[in-house]
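Quick question, first post here. What does this chain look like in 3D?
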Amino acid sequence: MRAAHHASLRCQIVLHSWLSRGWADAVIFQTGARIMGYALIGGLPGEARDCTIEFFPRPDVADHAETMFAALIGEGHVSRVESQSNDIYLAPMISTFGKSVSVSHLLFREHEGAPPVPGGASFRRLLSEDRVFRHESEPTGTWGVEIHGVIAATGGIATHYNDPFADLFMEVHEPFRRQGIGAWLVSQLRRECHDRSLVPAARCRVANAASAHTLARGGMIECGRLIQAGL
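> Answer (accepted):
Ran it through. Tokens below.
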């Protein structure tokens, strides 16, 4: 059922790895011997496991989705929900049952765009001897942009999501920002994804306008939002 769920969404599932990391448990909706769907309930380490992160009613019982979700709440094991707005099964449950709704991240898919190469820039794999700047928010990654012998930006591709989607991440050293380097790095990471038969995706915090602008210039487009709500 989970494979069918993800195939029907046709997008990156941001919280996909929670189950394999042991941060979520699966529950089954069943009437007699008939299995009607499933949900994943979990929480980050140190949090209560009371958050619904996936919900899938089988297509032949989709008319009963609200009744199924109400039963999940009625069991008393869930008090919140986190969903992508492009999840056609869980997001509508926020509209019906959600309280104190908030949005934390913007979600991106590949669109188009080929930003110009910044002057003197080259894209290459990072080496162990490279002097890499101190990062503020993202991991160093595998690739870097070098300008006149200096690593100006780094980035990578995370693949712990539903296949074939990969998550792009990057960070530009502060002296090199606002020069189009980040956007060009995003475009090169997209190319690396294509070479590995992966589908590029990305996300950033709602408040991070600079990152959203960089992703857009690098050929990505907003396709959804990550929503949280109480129940």
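The chain has a mean pLDDT of 96.
The longest strand covers residues 99-110.
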